[in-house]
Amino acid sequence: FIVYDEPDHVKAKVQAITDTADRKAFGLKCLKNIAGAGKFSSDRTIEQYAAENGYTIVKWYEDEISGVKDNRPAFDQILYGDNVTNPPYEAVIAYKSDRIARDTKLYFYFLYVLEKKNIKLISTKEDFGDDNGLSYVYRSLMLFVAEQERKNITLRTGGGRATKARQGGYCGGNVPYGYMNKRGTGRLEVVEDEAEMVRKIFKMLDAGWPMEDVADELNDMGYRTRSGKHFRFYHIRSIRDNRKFYEGYYKYGNMEEWVKGAHTAILDEIRPLVDAHDIPDRDKFADTELKNRPL
Questions:
Q1: How far apart are CA 204 and CA 229, in angstroms?
Q2: Residues facing residue 188 across a β-bridge
């Protein structure tokens, strides 16, 4: 079917394409829009609440950290600062209780610390009522809901990752040597220079080389880590421990079994048999074409 306002949708889409065609002009338009924006609605709400209830705002404290965290630099100044006392400070006003904390235990700890300073903790969106005997019960209920909401979001997000992982898809974390995370796709692609180095590492390990000798050999060949440093044995150990990944398998988080990965394997799944004639000689192993090639 054709919706009644389809022409308006088409017009808006064409306008969006036109506006974003010139990225420089669009960026300037965005900057002008931001510069002309007013205060955040939460700030206005706090100011209005203070004015209507006889409070004078003397200082703003802002944290860019989630209410889930207990390490909040700005809020810590209020809780533990020697200069934050009553008088002169009578109350801390927050937009909502879950902006203070989404963990019930944390919230009541913060409330306890402030009450020891004889400072009220006020929410503009929930009227707990100081004289109401049920105020603590109400606070607990509101915070329990906020905490459960956070847990549900975490479960939904984690569930999506787990489903993707069970299908062999890359779900984040450090990208192993030999691969890169193709931006915007969530897929791993082989970086051939690094992949060749990984194959050399396993060839040496399969031949019985100690990890320290493998690291020294890579350094002599001119290889460097992604941060430009010399290889050490723990780098080799990390690569060694990822063998199943390099063979094309994937495991994420608490998964018990490896599954077939969506990425391209760098190593053959079946380990090559190595006899005495296959053991590389360190003096002959270096490939002169790879000298001084950083990764």
A1: 21
A2: 181
